[in-house]
Amino acid sequence: MKTLHSHKIVFSCFLWVLLSLSVTVETKGQGAMDMQFHHLTPEDGLSQSSVYSILQDSEGYMWFATQDGLNKYNGYEFTVYSYDPDDPYSLSLNEVRTLYEDSRGNVWVGTLGRGLNLYDRERDRFIRFTGDINRSQETLSDNSIWAVYEDSRENFWVGTSWGLNLMKREGEINEDYLTKVTHYINRNDDPQSISSNNITAVFEDSRENLWIGTEEGLNILDRETGKFKRYLHDSGDPHSIGANHITTLYEDRTGTLWVGTLGGGLNSYDYESDRFYRYTHDADRPNSIAENAIHVIQEGSDGRLWVGTSNQGLSIFDRTSEEFRNYKYDKTDPRSLNNNAINSLYKSRDNTMWVGTFTGGINFVDKSSKKIEHYQNNPNSASSLSNNSVRSFMETSTGEFLVGTDGGGLNFFDRRTGKFSSLKHDPDNRNSIPSDVILSMESHREEGKIWLGTYNGGLSLFDVENQRFTHYQHDPDDEHSLSSDNVYQLYTDQKDRLWIATNGGGVNMLEPGAEKFIRYMENSEDSTSIDNNDIRSFYEDSKGNLWIGSYGGRLTKYEEEREKFTFYDINTGDLYSSVIHCMHEDSENRFWLGTRGGGLKLFDRETHNVTTYSKKEGLQSNIVNGILEDNHGNLWISTNGGISQFDPESEHFINFGMENGLQSREFNAGAYYKDREGYMYFGGVKGFNLFHPDSVTLNTSVAPIVLTDFMLFNQPVPIGGDSPLKKHISQTDRLVLSHDQTVITFEYTALEYSPLQGMQFAYKLEGFDSKWHYVGDTRSATYTNLDPGEYEFKIKAANSDGIWGEETSALTLAIAPPFWRTTWFYIVSILFLASVIYGGYRYRVRSIRAQNRRLGRIIAKRTSELDEKNSELAGKNEHLEELLEELKETRGELVKKAHKAGMADLATGILHNVGNILNSVNTSASLIEDTLRDSKLKRLSQANTILRKHIGRIDEFVANNPKGKELMHYYLKLEAPLNEERRKVLKQSERLNEKIKLINDVVAAQQSYAGAQMDAGQLSFAEMIDEALALQAGSIDRYELTIHKELEPVDPIVAQHSKLVHVLVNLIKNAREALDDVPREQRKITIKTWQDAENVYLSISDNGVGIRKVHLNKIFTQGFTTKTSGHGFGLHSSANYISEMGGKIAVKSDGEGAGTTFTITFPRQKQSGSPGASQEGSKENEKDYHSF
């Protein structure tokens, strides 16, 4: 069984720009890491978090063995294979311990208890190989598999919990693929047998020595003799193996054999001396291995040895310095190793190092390129950055590098060691740094001195060598003092003047050697003054113009000669720039502005035109905090969404996020700097990043493309049987479909494992598409209604640097034509058509000869049929006359019976209703009579008379006599009107039957009324409602009505049971019929009961068609109805029943579409003061009701 779990590691706002640039991060500071780990866990689709083995197969897929299932990963999603008891080709067991791919490209899967599995790529299934309980020589010696290995002689070795197995592989991949099993078992009496049956590792070194690790020692097998040489731990020999429990074997690029032990540390083997050298943990040496329980060894791309320990994380060994660097889980760092128990290590072909942990899933590190360094505060280290919010940088003329923070004071940074020291404000020392918030720094003309701009501490001149500060702060009594102590930026122009941007104090300028400040502040009465006192940036361009950025979204130029300020509006389009954070003139004299909210802007200083580059054009964020230029003319831009590299010539952005090693996506305004060597510094809210632009190189490789799935009509296509797929789609070279398989979808991916992915794809169906479809990150292609023929499906991909790889011919697609478009069908059709034409000719000749004979027989038959129809219609007319007489007699009898019973009202009702129906009956009868009177049959006897004269020679009469031919046309035309007459008579007959049935119903109802029991008794409204609903249950269900009951407790009423049920059923039925035009989900009937001091009430409401107000006064009148098919009996009789029982019935409706409410009122029998609705509530809107 396999399932699919989708996972996308990291994507930026624009997936078509660079996100998979191969970079890693160096987070500096005491105890910090020189790499970042990315994680894949069950939340990303991994089947389980304990990863015991890792493999990249020859096609490029990554495989992960876990405690609960086998995972195949393509960089985007996991396919999980697991045991299915109903599928003999599923994985034999979910707990997988080892993975191996042999030289033939077969992937082998060893389970803990159910043997070995071979993955069949073509069928996407597994073939199982298991041992029997008797450990037969024909099968595996045990079903717990710990190691699988193929040596240079193509011998296939399997290490189990009960010995070592040598197996031969023969024939096709099936259940008989493994044959000729040889078992190597420990024998206590034979020192040259294997030292233990618990095999943990099998490995052949470059000298073709076959090493076997066991739980009780290390062995070398002489494959010629079958004898083993044992290496066992000797506590008296420091050069023996460190421990007998061998966990892993590995040979590095120098030919050194490394042995991992459980408890004896890391061991290297010296072939010349036949000795082992141990690397063990030493608590007094921080650069020793993390612990002595070793699980796995792997060599990195830089030649360092990665060692996974049992519970102390990773130890990376530098053979040059003979030192280890240890990496553990750090709960404060989300990019640290996420679990310290390391089960597996694997280096994939792109130099990514994969780490399988015990409960943390997969960790992986991309080590294929140069570094972006990350420095941040470590609360456990006094030599780390003092505060994570970095606001400014400065390199002094004497080589010191200073970092200003927001709250942590001033830091001295030693790039060589990665360590920091800091100076912080001391409120008891006037000569200390004036504030711990250092917003800006600028060099001084005197060597070894720098200016510091602080928040709330004003301006300070710092003598770095002597660690002394000279403070310049605001004095409200001195107009030549600093105008504000909140200094946001410092800038030295070509005349060595210091320009100071303040918050609220406008611009200040200090001449070289001067002690007095010149202020430039907003003056509403002077249009040439600065227009805003909140200043954020300065820049002097190559022409000596000083530009000022402030709040308000306008750019300001200071014209020194005229001592005036000129303003330029930079806001264009929909983006509003509230602040200009930074400015830069590039090597081509283009002038760039970084804004808050308006993105990056190119300002033409001649025309004053503004070109905006925003997120729409590919910038990470529209809040730009800093701009630097590298030696190649590219701009590096810090934003609130990461860092963007921008090529002004191509107008192309390359974006970097946290996945590239950035401290976070948010950077601080003004925190950007380029040192003398070209290194760039960008400060943010979680430390700062340092890198050289030339070391961040483009990724020129493009991952291989594979087909992952094929679908017909948006459904996955199975493999085998009647399916068009005989192999997995990735293994299929040619796919043949029928013409009616009209909706096809190919799914594909690039096997890219960088955490930055950002792949772009394009596809083309040659033979159908004239050009490539560029579809961004979409990984599927759908085609519909392809014409029969041959096509070739091609795919190509670009990495996130925009580098396109070679096109890949995925497969050939053949659409078979329908049978009617095949050559054989055309030949058969021509022959068939010729035979039809010939046969038609012969048939026509025979038909003409037989025509006269048939005409005679037809005329005779038609004459007979018409006689029969004439008799039938005459009989129906007589029957209708008899029926009318019977109805008249019945009417008379009913009148007599009603009078005899003393029921005048009953008689009147019967007479009125039956009389109306009889009038309708008479109308129908008259229509039938008129139809028969005007019938075309009247002329039939004349035609028959002519025929009888020629009865002996009808053929000749019809063929030669003009009257005979005319008579034939008459008979043919007679058929249609006779059928129409017959239809009309039958329709009127049906109507008569309906009206007769209605009369019977009326009579039966009135007789039932007359004979019903008139005894009244106490009845419960609630019980009567339930009884009426039960009688209507079928109709309620069929019409999907919602019945809402709001039944307050009320007193019993005195009424006749049958009459009250009759009334309630009639009202519910009417409500249901009123809902016919209401959508089913909205149909609702509400039934309420309540009482007040005098009466008991029951109402039935619907949200149906309603009743026009002009009809409300007539609604209870006998014979009045608003229905197209009603007769006006129901409400009239219901009103009579209620009145006879001493109650009242009323109706309310606000008009058409507003629903209807019928309310029944009965007087209470006792005035006991029982609780009920208020008098006011019971009579609410009484004026709107119409009563009977």
TrEMBL record:
The chain crosses the membrane at residues 823-841. Residues 1-25 form the signal peptide. SUPFAM superfamilies: ATPase domain of HSP90 chaperone/DNA topoisomerase II/histidine kinase, Calcium-dependent phosphotriesterase, Fibronectin type III, Quinoprotein alcohol dehydrogenase-like. Residues 1161-1188 are annotated as: Disordered. The keyword DNA damage does not apply. Keywords: Coiled coil, Membrane, Phosphoprotein, Signal, Transmembrane, Transmembrane helix. Residues 1177-1188 have a biased composition (Basic and acidic residues). Residues 866-900 form a coiled coil. InterPro entries: FN3_dom (IPR003961), FN3_sf (IPR036116), HATPase_C_sf (IPR036890), HATPase_dom (IPR003594), His_kinase_dom (IPR005467), Ig-like_fold (IPR013783), Quinoprotein_ADH-like_sf (IPR011047), Reg_prop (IPR011110). Residues 1161-1176 have a biased composition (Polar residues). The keyword Membrane applies. GO terms for molecular function: phosphorelay sensor kinase activity. SMART domains: HATPase_c. Gene3D superfamilies: 1.10.287.130, Histidine kinase-like ATPase, C-terminal domain (3.30.565.10), Immunoglobulins (2.60.40.10), YVTN repeat-like/Quinoprotein amine dehydrogenase (2.130.10.10). It is an enzyme of class 2 (transferase). It catalyses: ATP + protein L-histidine = ADP + protein N-phospho-L-histidine. Its EC number is 2.7.13.3. Residues 909-1166 form the Histidine kinase domain. This is histidine kinase. It comes from Fodinibius roseus.
